[in-house]
Design a protein that fits this description.
Structural class of chain A: alpha/beta
CATH superfamily of the largest domain in chain A: Type I PLP-dependent aspartate aminotransferase-like (Major domain)
Number of domains of chain A: 2
Radius of gyration of chain A: 22 Å
CATH topology of the largest domain in chain A: Aspartate Aminotransferase, domain 2
Oligomer: homodimer
Number of helices of chain A: 14
Helix content of chain A: 40-55%
Strand order of the largest sheet of chain A: 2-10-9-8-7-3-4
Largest interface: A-B, 108 and 108 residues
Largest sheet of chain A: 7 strands, mixed
Strand content of chain A: 5-15%
Shape of chain A: globular
Number of strands of chain A: 14
């Protein structure tokens, strides 16, 4: 070993790297020159610049010595206080401080949970299609993912029960079931109360964790709130995730986990960077405490309801026969099934040249899904939505012929 | 499986959880009622509240639509631009945008590197004693850690060479060597240029990554800057980590990784939460661009130099014979060896009752170290330093007799 050899870092990588996909999200600035239905990016003009400036001033004048310091591993205390109020008011969740962990977005909450629960080769369950970030996360962990379909009432709980029975019959322990019960990403469907109760019953029967990802529930345009899965569980097996990304500002990178105190302690111990930004936490706490969050959610709900209507109207007016889509009660997404034999990836390449982008459904599947695609109506304005859907419909028509 | 059993999450945990220690850092507020030499917490009164309020206003008025949006996985662009200027000016590092990744503090940078390079059972090398967060990180990864001692000239490179030879002779590939070359945490020593060159030569010979953690280098009180290990390497095997935690505000949770473009791409793909806070990034970029960072570093260097002098003077005036300590040229830490048979953990329990806290050296060791302790002079003011050191010296005297 006395000679100097040429070495590269590639030779040193862990198994984790070999399972990793590309970085999670593109840069939203790149989408700004297109009509973009690609991502769950909030509307740029809705982002509350002036309110965040003011919240920063008040928060730092009040508590700058601690907001600019390292912070507690559970997150900035005043934000935890405000989130407990919000969870009770907006989600009907009765939680205590020991149930709460502030994270870098809900995405970090999910990543920590997967780190805590999943060794490579473990069996987990997930809705399919689902959020593309979850697909990447479960793949990265080396999990064996058993997929559960959805229908108009949400998670197919009979399929879930059947898969659980066969997993356990084969002598394996399912670790968790990942679900997005409100305005699911990407399908837009909401899981009914009866099905939510069944999910909890199954968790109690089979002893797995339910990960309830609820990033969109405050943005409901119609219908009534359905109780959270978390609030239906009395055995500490449901974990609730949410975020400020859609209701205040994705750029503050703040989410939260609600879970049993024991699990919160475990997740905190896996948080290598320590407590999530006290600076961002103090600003968000002031944004809540001042009443701005409640007002802002009302404004956003009206904004996105109009966007939703513009997209659904444009779909109805433009789409050729054979294209099917969902109509969500809230959130950001319409899910589209293309007619037989059409490829969403091929369609995406074509429309992108014409200045329109969307998410091919393959990103939301662990396998397959190329006949599906997701349209987000959060980022493009109404005129762009009308123009973009017309263009997309023409491109589909061209592919069909 | 038709009966409902009592299940707990404990039954579901991964191997990773079994290797995890407690959460990384305590809450600094808890230290405020004590004379605290415990942690590398910046001085609370030095935290630039008014400057951060102003930087936030300017940054959001300039670019709020994007600072409050999701961001690029490498981090907020303007912050990357400013950091390249800072790295050239303050560290002599010539880097390009493709060499840079913004992280949630240097601690996340280290965690991502360990995820990228280390499978359970892999051999890694680390200075010992070292930063307690690194001890926890390497343990959590399940690494087999080969420890390298330090002396007054820094890393013992002959010990490093010898350990590398025997690792490779046993047919194993060392993955990385972790070093803190400036004002090392916890010993305060600085590794000489000759030794830095030797570390790079060894990396080239044996093909491992050097992780250069440089959180403190801007806070030098005397002597001249030594070139970074990063700047001595031409084969892309050295990774440089730093942070705003000590020079702007720990609460913004912003650090950076400088590495080869390939490795930056890999680390970005492991960043589950996507790009680090564009909000915090925009504020920090403005803090740099306005010239405030340079002024603030000058103020902090003067502040901590006085604290350093106060502590060293108090040590000389008060400590009984048999106690030995280091005298750093910068940074936050004095490293203390207790006389034979004294336990720093026992001493810590005694002094804490009297209102003084410090870090027992066991936290900085992978094994042993109870005859050592770390004193930080960053958090306590000069009067507290004088009072605390006198009290600590008395406690040591009491334990000795």
């Amino acid at each position: 070993m006395s000679e100097t050899l040429s070495h590269t870092v590639d030779d040193l990588y862990s198994a984790r790297v070999r399972r990793a996909g590309p970085p999670r999200l593109g840069d939203p600035r790149r989408s700004a020159s297109l009509i973009s239905f690609l991502a769950g990016f909030p509307d740029p003009s809705s982002l509350p610049k002036a309110d965040v400036i003011e919240a920063t001033r008040v928060a730092l004048e009040r508590d700058g010595e601690w907001a600019l310091q390292y912070g507690a591993s559970q997150g900035y205390q005043r934000l935890r206080d405000e989130l407990l109020i919000k969870l009770r008011r907006d989600q009907g969740i009765e939680a205590s401080d020991e149930n709460l962990l502030i994270t870098n977005g809900a995405s970090q909450g999910l990543d920590l949970l997967v780190q805590a629960l999943c060794d490579p080769g473990d069996v987990v369950l997930s809705e399919e299609p689902t959020w593309s970030g979850a697909v990447a996360c479960f793949r990265g962990a080396g999990a064996e993912v058993v997929t559960i379909p959805l229908d108009a009432e949400g998670t197919d709980v009979e399929a879930l029960a059947s898969e659980l029975a066969s997993i356990v019959a084969s002598g394996r322990q399912p670790k968790f079931f990942y679900t997005i019960p409100n305005f699911q990403n990407p399908t837009g469907v909401t899981t009914t109360l009866a099905r939510r109760k069944r999910i909890v019953d199954l968790a109690h029967e089979y002893g797995f964790v339910v990960i309830e990802d609820d990033a969109y529930s405050d943005l409901r345009y119609r219908g009534r709130r359905v109780p959270t899965i978390y609030s239906l569980d009395d055995q500490g097996l449901v974990v609730y995730l949410s975020t400020f990304s859609k209701i205040m500002a994705a750029g503050v990178r703040l989410g939260w986990v609600v879970a049993s105190p024991e699990l919160i302690g475990t997740l905190s111990s896996l948080k290598a960077e320590g407590g999530t930004s006290p600076f961002a936490g103090a600003v968000a706490a002031e944004f809540c405490a001042s009443g701005t969050l409640v007002e802002h959610i009302a404004e956003l709900t009206a904004l996105y309801a109009s966007r939703h209507d513009a997209m659904l109207d444009a779909m109805t007016a433009n789409m050729p026969d054979g294209v099917k889509w969902t109509d969500p009660d809230g959130g950001f997404f319409v899910w589209v099934h293309l007619p037989d034999a059409l490829s969403a990836q091929a369609l995406a390449a074509r429309t992108r040249e014409q200045g329109v982008e969307f998410l091919p459904g393959t990103a939301c599947h662990f396998d397959g899904g190329d006949q599906t695609l997701r349209l987000s109506y959060s980022f493009a304005d109404e005129a762009q939505i009308r123009e973009g859907i017309a263009l997309l419909a023409n491109a589909i028509r061209a592919e069909m012929s």
